[in-house]
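Researcher: I'd like a structural prediction for the single chain below. Treat it as a standalone chain; there are no partners to consider.
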Amino acid sequence: MKRLVEIRSYKLKAGATAAFQHAFVSSAVPLLREWGTDVVAFGPSPHEADTYFLIRSYENLEDLQARQDAFYGSDTWRKGPRESVVSLIETYLNTMLWMSPASIEDLR
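Model: Treating it as a single chain, here is the predicted structure.
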């Protein structure tokens, strides 16, 4: 059964990649996983400075919405690493597509 994959691309503030990477790896990703989010892959983009990506997998659009609403609305996120992550982001863009479990594993 195919899963909905969200690819989030971040344009970071100039020179913020190292700080973003530290905050993301040490706080945001472990917290996302603790909340049951399937984090497929993440990291700095090799093609453009100050860009970063996050790939997550969900059962469907309703699952994505419910998980993101719960996570981003939680005190754990809002009073935790939120500011150290969000303060480094200029803009972001989401792209969603359906993928097979095997294709998702290839992304890992």
